[in-house]
Amino acid sequence: MAGITSYGAYIPRYRINHNTIFSAVGFLGTFPAPGEKAVANWDEDTLSMAVGAAIDCLNGIEREKIDGLYFGTTTQPYMLRQNSAIIAAALDLQPNVRTADFVGSTKSGTAAVLSAFDAVKGGERSNVMVCASDCRTGKPGGPQEHLYGDGAAALLLGNDGVIATLEGSYSVSYDFPDRWKASGERFEHAWEDRFIRDAGYSKIIPEAISGLLNKYNLTIQDFAKVAYPCLYPREHGNIAKRLGADPSQVQESMLATVGDIGSAGPLMMLVAALEEAKPGDRILVASFGNGSDALFFQVTDRIAKVGDRRGIKKNLAFKKELTSYERYLAFRNLAPMEMGMRGEESAPTPMSTLFRERKTVLALCGSKCKRCGTPQFPYQRICVKPDCGAVDEMEYYRFSGKNGILFTYTGDNLAASIDPPAIYGVVDFEGGGRSQFDLTDCDLDSVKVGMSVEMTFRRKYLDEARGVHGYFWKATPVRN
Amino acid sequence: MAEGIKDKVAIIGMGCTKFGELWDQSAEDLMVDAFKEAIEDAGIEKKDIEAAWFGTHFEQLSVGKGATPMSTTLKLPFIPVTRVENFCATGSEALRGACYAVASGAYDIAMALGVEKLKDTGYGGLPGGPSLMGTRSMLIAPNMTAPGAFAMLATRYFAQYGLSPEGGKNMLAKVSAKSHHNGVLNPKAHLRREVTVEQIMNAPIIAWPLGLFDCCGVSDGSAAAIVTRADMAKKFRPDPVYVKALQIAVSSGEEMMYNTWDSTHVETTTRAAAKAYEEAAIKNPREEISMAEVHDCFSITEAVTMEDLQFSPRGRVKEDIDAGRFNLDGEQPIQTDGGLKCFGHPIGASGLRMMYEMYKQLQGKAGERQIRDPKFGATHNLGGFPGMSVISMFIVGL
Questions:
Q1: pLDDT tens sequence for chain A (480 residues)
Q2: What CATH number has the domain spanning A352-364+399-477?
Q3: β-pair type (B51-55, B109-117)
Q4: Contact A412/B125, CB-based, under 8 Å?
């Protein structure tokens, strides 16, 4: 029986308290909800977070086995240039992988899971990864800014080593116009909250879940956990009551810790449920957005064999408060920041170079000398080891999963940066290899020579004039 | 065994403009001024110059590519002119070309001229973006600047030798304070004021741990040299300055891609210096080199260069700095003209500007900065970043 064989998640390090936003700009006709939300760093976006979740999901799994990668989001960086193909390249998947983007609705995460399931259950594909990620920017002062958080989840679907079988699903689709955004627009539009709540969440989610229960002749009490999103905390509880679910059955929505995470929300809740699940548990997950997909999983005894995952728990625990709303605006490109004339200089991205060097740039692959075993970055044809110097005896060597030691570093106030000082340094990789990288998700005071670092996929630059989101890897203190 | 360059070439004339933020002068103006002084100093005419080398680095900021910017500005009459670029060693690379030209016997008189106009960019510091790896750099290089690249030398030096941030910064502050003192005495320097160790240590951080006064200035300037065969030199002047060694060393890539380089020294400097001493038959550089102009783009660069040039033992330059060894009145004065610290670093000109000071000192014409009876002077340029660099090293003497 096909189902989930691995899971992972990613939550950005920064959290901003709702009061911080409220005290800066207020909210249109509302009050600050309790808690905080997760905020992507200035060098993070939907795509980089998806890679973060995928790496968590792939811990200990051979990447050569992955033959599909589906990506669900509403905030894909590219309208043209397949976002899932960039993720697949960052993960160094084989070229024969099937990639597809699922976009346009907050149910695109569950839509991607259902498509992946269809592909693996008949044996057409062996192991399909699903990433769901969203990084939605609301207008300053508006309810979307207030409630939307950033994060990502990843699931691997296959037939071998299944930890939770996908037993069934039920979908409903409505052109429910609660929120919309035309092509080329930056911000969403929304209809009245009461409409979204009463005609949307509280009707459509129960409809999908009831449909599933009827279809499989189950009751809500058959489930250990029921997970579904809702923008309105009180209504989240009311939906459970309407379904007849006990509060203990309801998966925590993360509204007060991460926020409403769009396409990634249902999958992140599913990951959180799997972290606590016991063999035999049934888990029901429903999405919301122009209808709803309800999915029903049954946990197997292999759940105990899932290796070390950061998942939701460790990601939630790893955080730093962003105390400045103004910095939040800068991170989300909502306030034009002075980068100086030096910062304004930008050459076009050499696309043919990028394609030729895709394993270097996107997958962080260097080479390893077959004669002396020295790893080196970037790829060299002539071995850099002084007493070796072998010519054309190289094989690809992936550094992205390797931790390293910070050999030296600086915090640079002259370099143009959204978040000065720009911190960068030289990394000595475990197993050999050395190169210099930007550092991210750290503060200069906490950076030390000799500290352990790991590699994280980030947006290196945004060239708005030419429509380019440039990605590369940065070093970051190992998340513990 | 190759013979090397020792005593084959003599410098018979030099020119150097005032360096600074020269809003009223173009790169072409600076070339003319350096050229005029050099040929007057050599006592020759333009028609005597048979070949020329032209050094400039950021050609896109001022003069453009190729050799024609110099040949047409100076109206050089259809002689061979070669433009060279080799990071911050560009000026020294131009001089190297001219030296080899006369040493080979191909020409009797050759000229080297370097110029850089950095103050037409609209901002302080050097142009942005890492420029070491070409088009790849925007894809994979960190968001680096020159101060940051050299700051990483300091971070590692402090860690390796157990210096506290305060102790390390104090050592570096003394390096800059010394150069500022010398710059006050030099009318051609850009920055001419005394700065105290306290001021330096408390200045705003540019790239941790380097503060404002740990960084050299950014300026415009030009310098030129006329060289001839050693056996002809005395026909031009009684006090020609002879080239004793001329070395370039360039990174192999192992510093930044292999794991053995310690980032508390510069391997290329170490290698170039060892070869230069061999070429000049210098056995004990700490005792025999009377003075030096080294590449103090940042205070830490000068500090580790003292060790790389074997002026101080490894890890112990602090003792020499504290003892005042490198001060103008010390045992081995360094940056007698104020260095990059006070001249700034118009890249194409710097190597020749350093040589101008050594030349004047050896001739006893350094005015208030004159040191007593110098025998050998050294110039050193470090181009690129510490782990991926081009080093030039000259030794000159009477």
A1: 899 999 999 999 999 999 999 999 887 666 777 899 999 999 999 999 999 999 999 999 999 999 999 999 999 999 999 999 999 999 999 999 999 999 999 999 999 999 999 999 999 999 999 999 999 999 999 889 999 999 999 999 999 999 999 999 999 999 999 999 999 999 999 999 999 999 999 999 999 999 999 999 999 999 999 999 999 999 999 999 999 999 999 999 999 999 999 999 999 999 999 999 999 999 999 999 999 999 999 999 999 999 899 999 999 999 999 999 999 999 999 999 988 888 888 889 999 999 999 999 999 999 999 999 999 999 999 999 999 999 999 999 999 999 999 999 999 999 999 999 999 999 999 999 999 999 999 999 999 999 999 999 999 999 999 999 999 999 999 997
A2: 2.40.50
A3: parallel
A4: no
Residue A62 structure tokens? 């051979």
- From-to residues of CATH 2.40.50 in chain A: 352-364+399-477
Residue of A nearest to B160 (CA): A449
Q: How many CB atoms lie within 10 A of CB B235?
A: 10
In angstroms, the separation between the Cα of residue A427 and the nearest Cα of chain B is 10
Q: Do B256 and A357 touch (CB under 8 A)?
A: no
Residues of chain A neighbouring B168 (CB-CB closer than 8 A)? none
* β A282-286/A189-190 pair status: unpaired
Per the structure, the count of domains in chain B is 2
Task: Tell me which chain A residues have a C-beta less than 8 angstroms from the C-beta of B304.
Answer: none
Interface test with B, best of A43, A356, A394, A410 (most B CBs within 10 A): A410
Q: Residue A147: enclosing H or E segment and its boundaries?
A: helix A143-147
Strands B388-397 and B376-385 come out as: antiparallel
Structure tokens at B124: 């302080």
Question: CB–CB of B273/B394 below 8 Å?
Answer: no
Residue B345 and residue B248 share a domain: yes
* Residue A158 forms contact with B (CB below 8 Å): no
> Which CATH fold would you assign to the domain A3-331?
Peroxisomal Thiolase; Chain A, domain 1 (3.40.47)
List the structure tokens of A360: 């270097």
| AA letter at A478 | V
> Angle at the Cα of B147 (from B154 to A426), degrees rounded to 5?
60
Torsion sign across C-alpha atoms A182, A327, B124, B85: negative
Domain with CATH 3.40.47.10 in chain A: 3-331
Instruction: Give the closest residue to B261 by CA, choosing from B346, B190, B175, B160.
Output: B160
Q: Give the one of A380, A417, A444 whose C-beta lies nearest to B208's C-beta.
A: A444
The range of the structural domain enclosing residue B208 comes to: 144-213+243-397
**Helix or strand or coil: residue B245?**
strand
Preferred mutation among A414, A457, A461 to probe B, highest tally of B CBs within 10 A: A414
Residue among A345, A434, A461 minimizing CB distance to B259? A434
Query: How far are the Cα atoms of A21, A201, A230 from residue A234, in angstroms, in the given order?
Result: 21, 12, 9
Distance from CA of B176 to the nearest CA of A (A): 20
Residues B150 and B284 in one domain: yes
- What's the half-sphere exposure (Cβ side, CA atoms, 13 Å) at B161? 22
Closest-CA residue of chain B to A342: B128
Query: Would you say the ipTM is above 0.90?
Result: yes
Query: B313 to chain A, minimum CA–CA distance in Å?
Result: 22
Question: Do B47 and B107 meet the contact criterion of CB atoms below 8 Å apart?
Answer: no
